[in-house]
Structures are given as C-alpha cells and as structure tokens.
Amino acid sequence: MAKAYFTDKDSDVYTFPKGRFLPVHDPIRPNQIVGVAGGGQVKVADLGTAAQTFPIIMNRITKTQRDNLISFFQDASVNYKQYAFSFTDEAAVTVSVRLWSDVLDFPISKGALYNVKFVLRKEISS
Q1: CB-based burial, 67-105: b 16+ in 10 Å, e otherwise
Q2: What are the residue boundaries of the structural domains of the chain, listed by start?
Q3: How high is the pLDDT of residue 62?
Q4: How many CA atoms lie within 13 A of 9 on its CB side?
Q5: How far apart are CA 121 and CA 116, in angstroms?
Q6: Which of 24, 34, 35, 42 has its CA 20 to 30 A from that of 77?
Q7: How far is CA 28 from CA 7, 86, 96, 103, in A?
Q8: Is 73 in contact with 104 (CB distance < 8 Å)?
Q9: What percent of the chain has pLDDT over 70?
C-alpha cells in the first residue's frame, strides 16, 4: 500500500512519512436536522450535501517531518484553511480537501517524536 500525500496548487508535495494510524476512518456526516414533532412523528430537514471528513492520525514522526507538514499548511497556496489542496490516500484515490481542524497540536512523545492529529474536509463542488 502506497503512502498518502498532499499536493497544493503550486505542485508542492508533502508525503506522509508513514501510513495513517489504523484503523483508518473516513466518516460521512449527513447535513440534516432531525427532530420529533409534538405527535411523535420524526421530522427531517435536509440542508444540503453530506460532508465527508478524513481524520489524519500519525504517531511518532520526526521533528523534520512535523516541520515539513507545518510548512505545507503555512504555504501561501494553502494558508491553513484558506485554500483547498489534493489529498491522495493509500489506495491512490485523490480528492480535493481543506484543513478542517481549528487547532494544530503536535505533542512530543517518547524518543522526542511527535504525534499528529488533524481533520481534512472534502470540498463540495458547486
């Protein structure tokens, strides 16, 4: 299985140093509001296209690998959440995504290695 990677609009590439932490989850969240009416009937309001997210978890990467990831997100062609970029997963499926996490936190673990956890959101085309 190939390693996942990001590509921005300037063709800069960040290749994951190792595979995502297993099991890999790519949840889909329906964009609906659900409630129960006074008579007990279920009411659903469909608010549009469902959102698909990609939680990214990598454990025990080096400081250089962490710094390269931060540089990718800080690059003017991505600018954290501002611009979409491509995410190619381990099965070579490429989707347009945007950083969706409010905070990037990279705690140091044993051996001066870093853990990485953030969420990407698939771009919905109009």
Answers
A1: eebeebbebeebeeeeebbbbbbeeeeeeebbbebeeee
A2: 5-122
A3: 93
A4: 11
A5: 17
A6: 24
A7: 23, 18, 15, 21
A8: yes
A9: 94
